[in-house]
Design a protein that fits this description.
The protein is mostly helical.
């Protein structure tokens, strides 16, 4: 096996932790931006970054928490919700970050005129 691939597999939890830390910093920075400039775009970015953070945290913890016994005890509708919620949060969160960034830039341009 390739050494870099082996290192990546063994250090995956560290990389996930750093990714979660980065997402938390982005969420806090955009919340600060929203409060400082009274920007709906900053608020949208904060909500989107928080949604991505929650989804990513779920995806990191799910293999440890969702055992086969838990899967067997869930109703089919609940299981479907548990499996699709992270993807919905990731997509909506990314859309919120992009839409919020666009809205904040637009607000800053209109204030500078």
């Amino acid at each position: 096996m390739n050494l870099s691939l082996e290192t990546l597999q063994t250090q995956l939890l560290l990389l996930d932790g750093l990714g979660l830390l980065g997402l938390a910093i982005i969420a806090l920075a955009s919340a600060h931006l929203a409060a400082r400039h009274r920007s709906w775009g900053g608020t949208m970015m904060a909500c989107g970054a928080s949604a991505v953070l929650v989804a990513r945290l779920y995806l990191v913890l799910a293999p440890h928490l969702m055992t086969p016994e838990v899967h067997g005890n869930l109703a089919p509708a609940t299981l479907q919700l548990v499996l699709t919620a992270p993807q919905v949060l990731l997509h909506c969160g990314l859309a919120g970050v992009v839409w919020g960034l666009w809205g904040h830039v637009r607000l800053m341009r209109s204030r500078s005129r």
